[in-house]
Amino acid sequence: MKTLTKISEEIVPLSGKQHIVLLIIIACAFQFILFYAPALADEAAKKSNLATNSQTVSQELIEVLSATQEPAEATQAIKTSTPANRLPEIPDRKIEIVRESSHTITAYNSEAAQTDASPCITANNFNVCQHGQEDTIAANFLPFGTKVMIPELFGDRVFVVRDRMNKRHTSRVDVWMKDRQAALKFGVKVAKIQVIE
């Protein structure tokens, strides 16, 4: 310590207060090096391990998909569905069925004669035409956003309640379809619906 003081006095002469400030700065620097730097290094190592684990899981998923698809298609599926900063979702997650009931099921599509003056816009202002996926249903007895499955007719496809029907249909479910002919062909059916979480 005496040597440091002597050297500092030769290079830059300091007053008593300046000398104390310099010692505080040096102490803070040592505190950062001894206490915070290892913690930051440990956090960086954890992030590195997470990225490595994500790559490993992605590679395993590619191998599983390769058994049923061409390798290039499997790799592309992983790249487009898995952002680099998170692990891929497990496709076989459990779905909890909240309740189940039988209902009349019909189909409709976006035509003014079947809906209203803005046939693409649902009752909760969702544009089914832009969305383009057949996962929207109309139901008066369920709140908007409720997720529903109709396994007897559509397997494991998940629908979302985004639209309403005429008030007289208190217990009917209307499935939105892109194609008018498909909706007509579907007709009227009775099936169980499952409200899920």
Helices and strands, with pairings:
Layout: H1 2-11, H2 16-66, H3 71-81, E1 97-108, H4 128-131, E2 136-139, E3 147-149, H5 151-154, E4 158-163, E5 172-176, H6 180-186, E6 189-196
Parallel strand pairs: 1-5, 2-4
Antiparallel strand pairs: 1-6, 2-5, 3-4, 3-6
Helix pairs in contact: 2-3
User: Number of folding domains?
Assistant: 2
Distance between the termini: 67 Å
Number of strand segments: 6
Fraction in helix: 40-55%
How do the helices and strands follow one another from N- to C-terminus? HHHEHEEHEEHE
Arrangement of strands in the largest sheet: 1-5-2-4-3-6
- Within CATH, the superfamily of the largest domain carries the name RlpA-like domain
CATH fold label of the largest domain: Barwin-like endoglucanases
What spatial form do the alpha-carbon principal axes imply? elongated
Q: Judging by the overall fold, what is the CATH architecture of the largest domain? A: Beta Barrel
Unreliable stretches, pLDDT < 50, 5 or more residues? 82-88
Main beta-sheet annotation = 6 strands, mixed, barrel
Mean pLDDT metric: 76
Q: What percent of residues are in strands?
A: 15-25%
Classified by CATH, the class of the largest domain is: Mainly Beta
Structural class per helix/strand content?
alpha/beta
Cα gyration radius (Å): 31 Å
